[in-house]
């Protein structure tokens, strides 16, 4: 059996995902075969594996930190919210069905065999498995059917590190209150406490730590400082949406209610000359150098939202002079029509933004695959992307084809990979693609920024750009170095050695 340790939090956003990634990196550096695991993840940012299976991107990030390829067994259950009370339930990488929150709560224990099977498969690879919980184990209304916090810890006999976020305030109440609400058996599993996101002089905190250990009867395994890291975080609590500063090259991403896979734009955030702003209103849009329409879990609903709040009209006006780039659901919105004959998003048909000569028909079957190749010959501002190599993946429920008005483009660009790659619109400023991660490989993002700078009449030197993969590796190493300094790794390795003794 693999050795296991589990990170649980006092709340969502306590820092569990980064701590799991950091521990994975440390243990990889120490020569172990280590892998992340999260039995159930709720997220709209997802990834497609080599096998064409869908999983949460948080576990992809953690797998990168561990130096291994992402496997769907790292995240056997993925919930993708479709509205405030329901989600698409994905099991072992494939769509199971849409369920209301109440129905899923009653059903989810039936998925325990799938969780155990996925975990056993991961054990065939890993010496150590670092498990992430979700939300808080003290959500007593969810305890009965728990499969992701203490229920998961019991399933695999895992010791638990409980993490609290001091940056939000009340960390002692968070940790002690959580311990008080656990059953005696659950509390015995908690082998250490971690105070996360600390800013300031730790000596001021020391008296509180002494009292915390006295009242909680659990040792504090570390006080981790607040870290500025450019890594993927949980999509529902990301701080990326709050950034409003405009840099030399300003990219505005439309943040509709069901935005998904906004990780497509992380590569631009590490470029010092570029700002990525997420906008929800016309007043926030300003005059960006590029507008991006990202993926959506409800394309028709989010297009209606843009139409109602005026963003659609604003983007169409901007497109006369400024490049607009749509990805997946955003690509569908830019077309002439979105039809939903199967009722995937409620049925009917909706006029698109009419910026691309394409039409989309939504279907019940989800397209899931990885893609790589060369971009076709492109017109307009991004003609410098022509023939560049790309790699990425598709996740969408719909097929897009050229409309009657797009036949000329179809004839000219006859290698468009079933209309899934980029085409430029009639005014040469509008582009669309189904490929997530389209900017990540090689120099594509660099070429985009250089084209925007040239249009603006400025020059950005090569020193502003860094290979994205190398950049992320440095971030994982920075995370690991910080955790080594501030966590009691000897104590944590001791917990691992004591776990699952036969």
From TrEMBL:
Pathway: Cofactor biosynthesis; adenosylcobalamin biosynthesis. The keyword Phosphoprotein does not apply. Residues 250-441 form the CobB/CobQ-like glutamine amidotransferase domain. The active site is at 328 (nucleophile), 436. Residues 5-228 form the CobQ/CobB/MinD/ParA nucleotide binding domain. It comes from the Bacteria. Keywords: Cobalamin biosynthesis, Glutamine amidotransferase. GO terms for molecular function: ABC-type vitamin B12 transporter activity; catalytic activity. GO terms for biological process: cobalamin biosynthetic process. Belongs to the CobB/CobQ family. CobQ subfamily. Catalyzes amidations at positions B, D, E, and G on adenosylcobyrinic A,C-diamide. NH(2) groups are provided by glutamine, and one molecule of ATP is hydrogenolyzed for each amidation. This is Cobyric acid synthase. The gene is cobQ.
